[in-house]
Amino acid sequence: MINAEQNFTALRLILPPAPKPLGVYKPCLIDGKYLYVSGHGTVKSDGSLIIGRIGQDMTAEEGKLAARQVGLAILATIKAKVGSLDKIKRVIKVLGMVNCTPDFEKHPFIINGASELFASVWGEDNGIGVRSAVGMSSLPDNIPVEIEALFELED
């Protein structure tokens, strides 16, 4: 069994505060053996947001780091809901939305920031699921990346 908490500690990363809903929705929901995580944004450790449009205000590399930060926000929500990253069996699906200029074409590269984080926490077999990465003309508060995900819980 993979020890996600040990893997996370070895990465020496810091979780931001688990984001509070900005509308009428739940940050996550358990249904049977699945944990559905609502769209998360670029919450930093101090609670502020990374802002900007990829291809205009930030580079692809900066966008990838922003997606990693979204992944950290998702991990914070998971820990707040179930108490430990070890309670996740595997990543099922990730949907990444990229706030970018119309000519930007590297959406998958951006979302790799979160996917690589998940793979490093749960391992390649359990940390990589199916995925979509799409471009958007805007996202809430002008964040560069929003990601929602589906996880399978341990029995």
UniProtKB/TrEMBL annotation:
PANTHER family membership: ENDORIBONUCLEASE L-PSP_CHORISMATE MUTASE-LIKE DOMAIN-CONTAINING PROTEIN (PTHR43760:SF1), ENDORIBONUCLEASE-RELATED (PTHR43760)
InterPro entries tied to this protein: Endoribo_LPSP/chorism_mut-like, RutC-like_sf
Domain of life: Bacteria
Lineage: Bacteria, Pseudomonadati, Bacteroidota, Sphingobacteriia, Sphingobacteriales
Any single Pfam family the record assigns to this protein: YjgF_endoribonc
Residues making up the signal peptide according to the UniProt record: none
Residues annotated as domain Endoribonuclease L-PSP/chorismate mutase-like: 9-125
CDD domains attached to this UniProt entry: YjgF_YER057c_UK114_like_1
Protein's recorded name: RidA family protein
